[in-house]
Predict the structure.
Amino acid sequence: MRRWSPSILIIIAAVLFFLPQNTKLQFSSFTQKFVLFVPSSIKSRLLYLRELKDKRDELEKKLTALNIQIAYLRNALKERANTPDSFPLWEKTEYELPSPASLVRANIIGRDHSLRCFLLIDKGKRDSVYENQPAVVPEGIVGKVIKAGDHFSVVETFHSPYLKIATLNWRTRYLGLISASGKDIKLAYIPSDCDLKVGDTLLTAGEGGIFPKGLIVGLIKKITPTKELFLDVDIQPVVDLLKIDAVYLITKTERKEKALEKTEMERIIKELELKIPDVIKIK
């Protein structure tokens, strides 16, 4: 069969040579389509998958922004129910209600040896990323940016023993502070007589000027009485850091009114510092 192969190819070439011009063109077009069919199909499929990914990312960004808005408004309504005379408005904080355009999506491209405490992301200062910028996913809080480079940044998560997040109990409105202790997440400094129940939802308290108020942090998983003054409270985070491949960074916008309030506060403090010696002399 191998001996006849060159002869067969020569015969096919001779037949093609003596074919009419239109037939040659049709045969050439058919051959090109047949040869390029597989690469063309793969290319169109990859473009379709890329479009689907972009659409998914855009919908996820909108979902994240809506979840943040809903979380804040739901918490604000809860506070209004408890204290009807005061209704907390978003404008009174350092944050505006975020829109999808104010969120920066960053892919996770690296992790520390524990896989949870620190995340390396592919966005930096050129993408409007800055230190202490909160990082979230649609389910809730992830952490904050602790180091922003030009092209990459590091996010410190709630599994880091160095990150403390002020929390608010949704049911009782009791304040607390969560921090990592080994592999566990604890609610620290909770008095033994505090009204806590397993399953209580913990939200961000909005203190410290980093995290917006009302975002879900986790649920109370276990309460253990101790001989000390405080309870041993284990927290179940709502976000599983091993199942996420990207985070959304919330851009903080400080209003002029907030800047004026800060200037006024600094002025008052200076005035008090000037008056303190006089008060001491009177005593």
